[in-house]
Amino acid sequence: SSRGAERRRTPLGQRENRREYPAFSDASPERSSRSSGILRRSAPRDDTLTPALCSRSERLRQKERRGMGDRARGRHISLRWEDFDGLLVFSWVLMVGLGAWRVNIKRDVTLALVAFGGGAIIETWGTRSGLWTYFTHEEPPLFILPAWPFAAIATERISFVVGRGIKRLGPKTARRAEVASLAVFCALLINWTRPAWSSPWTWLAFAFVAIVVSTTHATRDDLARFGAGSILGYLLEYWGTTRECWTYYDHSTPPLTSVLSHGFATVAFARFAHWVTSALSSANKRRNATGQLVG
Question: CB under 8 Å to 85, separation ≥6 — which residues?
């Protein structure tokens, strides 16, 4: 057929990428389908984008075409200087450097495992409910999961520095600041996730939020972790959204809610890590007591 002949004449590296991603923009084409309560629509045409987005989209498309052409011709793909991302390098050097400071193997391993599991739940919730999507269109992509333990450990180190300043606050002032921070975050989260309320993953996320909010006990520590997580979260979210590694449904770069979510996740990871450590410690004590009675 003519379409088949045209496809054969078109080089592999110049074929158009026709993947779809979830979006809520009215500028998207009419073709759509329902998935997890979120409207999934095909990607908007370049003529609906702003000039800045058009130029960036064209650069990314050209880079992908070069890579596809190199693979089709059996060449090795090497990194060019134009592929160097200073912000990405800075973010990873910062996290690795913070992770190497004040190392506590038992505490860090427990926190890393909790953050890995918690990050997997968060990424599954966001990608399957349609709140955000990755450039790979996986739900979620495996490459993003190891970043959560690194970020959790790095944020724990930052909270140590932030906590020095918070210690100057009185108990009542610190408590009021914590209540205000959590109240603002919960209000923003509920409003921002409205398009995904029909997804069961959203209500699972709300359940975890309720558990963490209702079990607050170390006011200054939680406040320090919330601030530290938000600081590092802004850096990571700004890189990911401006480089189009992931895209939120509202196309913000980044949304305020996602930045504060990193702060809340830091508090949640520390809380669950504390519970895991306490449970293991209690189990060891009971085992030792049972061994002494038997002996």
Answer: 239, 243
CA distance 282 to 293: 17
CA distance 231 to 158: 9
The answer to whether the CB of 155 falls within 8 A of the CB of 91 is no
pLDDT beneath 70: ranges in the chain: 1-79, 291-295
* Cβ neighbours of residue 3 closer than 8 Å, sequence gap 6 or more: none
Of the candidates 245, 220, 91, 241, the residue with the CA atom closest to the CA atom of residue 154: 91
In 3D space, the residue among 92, 110, 97, 106 whose CA is nearest the CA of residue 269 turns out to be 110
Sign of CA dihedral 105, 109, 110, 111: positive
Contact 226, 266 (CB under 8 A): yes
Phi then psi for residue 20, to 5 deg, are -115, 155
8 Å CB contact between 246 and 134 = yes
Q: How far apart are CA 43 and CA 25, in angstroms?
A: 10
CA distance 166 to 226: 12
- What does R_g of the chain's alpha carbons equal in angstroms? 23
Q: Are strands 38-42 and 20-22 parallel, antiparallel or unpaired?
A: antiparallel
Tokens of 61: 């498309």
Size of the chain, expressed as the number of residues it contains? 295
Structure token pair of residue 222: 């939680």
In terms of Cα–Cα distance, which of 118, 121, 268 is closest to 185?
268
Whole-angstrom Cα distance, residue 115 to residue 109? 10
pLDDT digits over 35-86, tens only?
A: 344 444 334 434 444 444 445 556 555 555 555 444 444 444 455 777 788 8
